[in-house]
Amino acid sequence: MPKAPAGTLYRGREGMWSWVAHRVTGVGIFFFLFAHILDTALVRVSPEAYNEVIATYKNPIVGLMEVGLVGAVVFHAFNGLRIVLVDFWSKGPRYQRHMFVAVGVLWVVLMVPFVIRHLSHVFGG
Amino acid sequence: MTTVAPNIPAPRSPRRLRGRTNTELYSWLFMRASGMLLLILVFTHLFVNLMTGDGINALDFAFVAGKWADPLWQVWDLMMLWLAMIHGTNGLRTVINDYAERDQLRMWLKVGLYTATTITVVLGTLVIFTFDPCPPDAAADLLPSFCQAP
């Protein structure tokens, strides 16, 4: 199918950027999931094999990546609920921008305690 | 003066009514239903593993073995495995359909995706149900506390 010769369907603002962020976080989480299932499968090999691989994750760089991962999961979860409400709640489309703000507020509310606790584990030893 | 009726061909049955299935509707519905379940499953998983106790520092073989000694966490993780993998695979299928424009490339990307998903889900399921929390040849200090010394 040929590309549209002019113009674009992309409208910007909350609607488009939440959609972009939902895709980017979704794909990222999915690739992490493959790694997560494969490393957890090492418990079937031996306790030593599992502990050895998990030990390579216990450093500040991976600790910060875990914050990014949880941030992606929390956004994807709350924005997913927003999508469900847009699709199934009669007033959903009208309030999609308000719900996008609510996603951001809930994200901060959950991430602040998580980041404090997780980083104190990562950097506090 | 007579007007000639324009020659309008008889309507054909629309293409979409022939052999139409509702697969995409079910896929759309599944994403919403599994997404809501995954919110509960994954948030609990993250809270129990990262927020309680020593958080990430407590993660080792004994921690996993201790959790899977409880059938609740076996079923919990099994549901997460299946729902998250199917949800993610369906999401990536949509992304591939959107961006891979060449027919051959699109097909092979999806063949690769479905192959990787099948292998991962089967492997994960086997691990949850066949793993031994107290392997006989392992060092005792690596094992959960309920493993009796031989």
From TrEMBL, chain A:
It comes from the Bacteria. Its cofactor is heme. It comes from Jiangella asiatica. GO terms for biological process: tricarboxylic acid cycle. Its main location: membrane. CDD domains: SQR_TypeA_SdhC_like (cd03501). Belongs to the cytochrome b560 family. Keywords: Heme, Iron, Membrane, Metal-binding, Transmembrane, Transmembrane helix. This is Succinate dehydrogenase, cytochrome b556 subunit. NCBIfam families: succ_dehyd_cytB. Heme binds at H76. GO terms for molecular function: electron transfer activity; metal ion binding.
UniProtKB/TrEMBL annotation, chain B:
It comes from the Bacteria. SUPFAM superfamilies: Fumarate reductase respiratory complex transmembrane subunits. The keyword NADP does not apply. GO terms for cellular component: membrane. InterPro entries: SQR/QFR_C/D, SuccDH_FuR_B_TM-su. One of its GO terms (molecular function) is metal ion binding. Its main location: membrane. Keywords: Heme, Iron, Membrane, Metal-binding, Transmembrane, Transmembrane helix. It is found in: Membrane. The chain crosses the membrane at residues 25-51, 71-90, 111-131. Coiled coil: none annotated. This is Succinate dehydrogenase. It comes from Jiangella asiatica. The lineage of its organism: Bacteria, Bacillati, Actinomycetota, Actinomycetes, Jiangellales.
